[in-house]
Write a structure and sequence with these properties.
The chain is mainly β. The chain has two helices and seven strands.
Length: 113
């Protein structure tokens, strides 16, 4: 959040490099994923909370406008699954932004039809 684009996002690595973790997996794959992708009306978003604490999972359109909140609050460590209902959104590209004390990750997702 903030008045400028640079305040809205946290750099986790180059878009072209895949921001690799030590074990070779990408940071995004460790923290957040969604399936199916692309999707028609809803998609399942899985987050891996590395340590219990405050977590937010927000959905943004490609212009950076907040269009949905999946979860915002305290979660225990572990994997959590959420169904994101996108029936009210138009077919387009969206970004899922995961934020917690252990990191920030984004995931692209595409709604079709």
């Amino acid at each position: 959040t903030g008045a400028y684009w640079t305040d809205a996002w946290t750099l986790v690595g180059s878009c072209t490099s895949g921001a690799r973790a030590a074990d070779g997996a990408t940071i995004n794959d460790q923290l957040i994923s969604n399936a199916p992708n692309p999707f028609i009306s809803s998609t399942e978003i899985e987050v891996n909370v590395e340590q219990a604490g405050e977590v937010s999972v927000m959905i943004y359109d490609k212009a950076g406008q907040l269009v949905g909140t999946v979860v915002q609050g305290y979660l225990n460590a572990g994997k959590h699954d959420f169904i994101f209902d996108a029936t009210n959104l138009k077919a387009d590209l969206y970004l899922v932004k995961y934020s917690s004390a252990s990191g920030v990750a984004t995931q692209k997702m595409i709604k079709v039809q």
